[in-house]
Amino acid sequence: MILKNLSVKFIKFYRYFISPALGNNCRYYPTCSEYAIMEYETENFFKATVKSLFRILRCNQLFKGGIDYPVVKKKFLATYGKKQKVKYWLIPQGNDKYIVIKAYNE
Can you give the residue ranges of every domain in the chain? Predict the structure, then answer.
């Protein structure tokens, strides 16, 4: 938990202070930094680190780019009568795999 929080804080520091100086260079949507934050918030630390690293390595001129949302594998238990705040939508892809899409709550 500490490593995940530290990683997310480092990524947010990068997004707000370093990335604006470099310009908009990401070939994917969502951006690599937003993808990494979504991974860290939905997966364990090691899976999120590996998936984020591979995503960053694919973000160059040799790959086409495009829309690439994180995919997570989860099993859900029923929660009845509990009010929950939605942070991410999980779109089913089959065999307990879901595409993660950020929910914009207003």
Answer: 2-102
